[in-house]
Amino acid sequence: MPEAKNPASQTLSRGIRILEELADARNPLTIDEIAGRLGVHRSIAYRLLRTLEDHRLVSRDTSGAVVLGARMAALAAGVAHDLQAEALPELTAIANELGMTCFLAVLDGDDCITLASIEPRHGIASVAQRPGARHPITVGAPGKAILMQLRTAEWPSDAAPGLRTEVDAAQARGYATSHDEVIPTVQSVAVPLALRGQRPAAIAVVHVATAIDDAEIAARLKRSATTIREALDG
Length: 234
Hints:
The strands form two sheets. This protein has a six-stranded antiparallel β-sheet. The chain has a two-stranded antiparallel ribbon with strand order 1-2. It starts with 9 loop residues before the first helix and ends with a helix. It is α+β, with helices and mostly antiparallel strands. A hairpin with a 2-residue loop joins strand 3 (about 100-110) and strand 4. The longest helix is centred in the C-terminal third of the chain and has 20 residues, at about 215-234. It is about 45% helix and about 20% strand.
């Protein structure tokens, strides 16, 4: 993730980048890995991490590697609080009914960011989808479900030429799918969640393999999207 050009506060910018790198990472990161990703000396990364630890924004696992701290969850809960409050019961119901991880994603710049995620209670091989995880909206089912809500002029400038056809097809059937686009071997189904006065969003599931048809999964997601939309729009 490139560092912002000429940030007003380089220290603050680097601290935020550490949080972003940890949110994007699939596993805990060592101090050396964090220093490498930031392009700074290990001692600088260590001082930044100590400050973040003091605020409980990061913590260490048993091996000393760095993970996001519990305080991050509390901060994240304050983002789009009403949306999360209405969505979580629906995400939980979908996850347990389908045996798949269900999550709520929203538009953030040119990225699709996971706002909330629920893993199934009795899932055998569920896929983790951490809150704060992000990827470009030009890939993945939730990204495409968000693109369905945007004018082409609002799309990222580097969108592949064939993406328009793919999103038009998703628009016609009412849901988006992806296979191996964001995480190898993982499949996803997503539906748009258009809310008055809020950023474009999507409800999605991720799974490795299932006997449930994509259209059936999408129909279940749409019912929850309608419930959330009606609750928030009044």
